[in-house]
Amino acid sequence: MHRRHLFRTTLGLTLAAPLVARAQQVFTIRCHSFSSPTALDHTLHLDRWAERVGQQSQGRIKVEMYPAMQLGGQPRDLPQQLEDGVVDMIWTVPGFTPGRFMGTEGIEMPFMNTGKSATMSPAAYEYAAKNLASTEYRGIKIIAIHATDRALVHTSRKPIRVQEDFRGLRLRVAGRFIGEAVTALGATPVGIPLGGVYEATARNQVDGFLINWAITHPFRLYEVAKYHTEPAGTGLFQGLLLTLMSMQSYNRLPTELRAVIDANSGAELSRQLGEIWDTQTQQAIDATRAAGGEIIEIGPEEKARWRNAVAPAYEAWIAEMNRRGRNGRALFDEMMAITARYGRA
To answer: CA-to-CA distance for 241 and 93, rounded, in angstroms?
Structure first.
């Protein structure tokens, strides 16, 4: 009995029932997430995914959820925990682990976005599955890649109405290439974990932050930012959220249970998650207006100026892909083609 207990606790995906007929075997998937158990990431995505997989497998797949880094480590450690077999599945953000998902971070650059998560999510999934599966997702099964709703610039004291207003500002960013774009626009990028954005802005350690609408509501970021600037209709960019499973864990499942995972993965799941994110935008906007915030929309001419200004960020990403032995220009062109097909403005 002691040896069986040891076997269970040292493998991520384990045989949780006695070794009898395959029909009676129960397989446990341990999913580790940085997000709060009360956040929509769990309540409307991961927890519901676990329920569906459990039901469709007739109880043969049991998903154990560990939100808020309950198994230890920092959010940046999640990909390594997946690769080391500590867990079978993770929910993470590319920018949390700098350099690990560099190709994926390209899709988060300004003006690659469609403005709607329901369209940007399947675009991002298609791009990554087609172009990055054998490189940064080697050994990983992509369950879903979905986008946030549209993201924009939030500032505390100085409104941004034209590109020149970026000068001198310190703005929190979530990843390297958003930072490259902020630099190209004239501001200084600052890396701060999401949980520290409110305090840093309140203390004037930064002048604002680039982040999507939906996340401003639960973190009450509208209390520390007065001005909210975005290109009309589309926002500035859209961040990405990754639901990933170890391919080793996936391959341990019998064929019929792998089919259950397959049925709950892919572009369609990504699109459905996008629809959920899109429902969060308006309530965040309403809360911002109720707090006295000013929403500033820039028009087509000013948007074109910003788009031209951030071109160095694109070139930096292409150069990084080339440095890693990939064809950066071809990847960039593919990214542009796929996002355009899904509605990039």
So the answer is: 5
- Which two three-digit tokens encode residue 253? 């499942």
Nearest to 166 by CA among 239, 110, 214, 95: 110
Asked if residues 165 and 174 have their Cβ atoms less than 8 Å apart, the reply is no
In the block, tokens 């172009």 appear at 131
The C-alpha atoms of residue 316 and residue 334 are separated, in whole angstroms, by: 17
Q: What is the pLDDT of residues 260-284, one digit of tens each?
A: 999 999 999 999 999 999 999 999 9
6: left (phi over 0), alpha (psi -120 to 50) or beta: alpha
Instruction: Please provide the DSSP assignment of 20-45 as one string.
Output: --GGG--EEEEEEESS-TTSHIIIII
Beta bridge partners of 241: 146
pLDDT of residue 51: 98
Amino acid at 195: G
In this structure, what token pair is assigned to residue 107?
Answer: 């899709």
DSSP letter assigned to residue 172: E
CA angle centred on 222, ends 270 and 240, rounded to 5°: 20
Closest CA to 318 of 186, 210, 180, 189: 180
306: helix, strand or coil: helix
CA distance 226 to 155: 6
Amino acid at 338: I
Average pLDDT over residues 90-99: 94
Q: What is the 3-state secondary structure (H, E, C) of 193-249?
A: CHHHHHHHHHCCCCCEEEEEHHHHCCCCHHHCCCEEEEECCCCCECCEEEEEEEHHH
Q: Which of 337, 333, 313 is nearest to 109 (CA)?
A: 313
Residue 289 has a CB neighbour count (10 Å cut-off) of 13
| pLDDT tens digits, one per residue of 323-339 | 999 999 999 999 999 99
Query: 98 in helix, strand or coil?
Result: coil
243 - beta bridge partners? 91, 144
- Rounded to two decimals, what is the model's pTM? 0.91
191 closest CA partner among 202, 204, 206, 181: 206
Please give the Cα distance from 280 to 142 (Å, whole number): 24
Q: What letter does residue 90 receive in the DSSP assignment?
A: E
State which amino acid sits at residue 274. Answer: G
CA geometry: angle 200, 92, 45, nearest 5 deg = 110
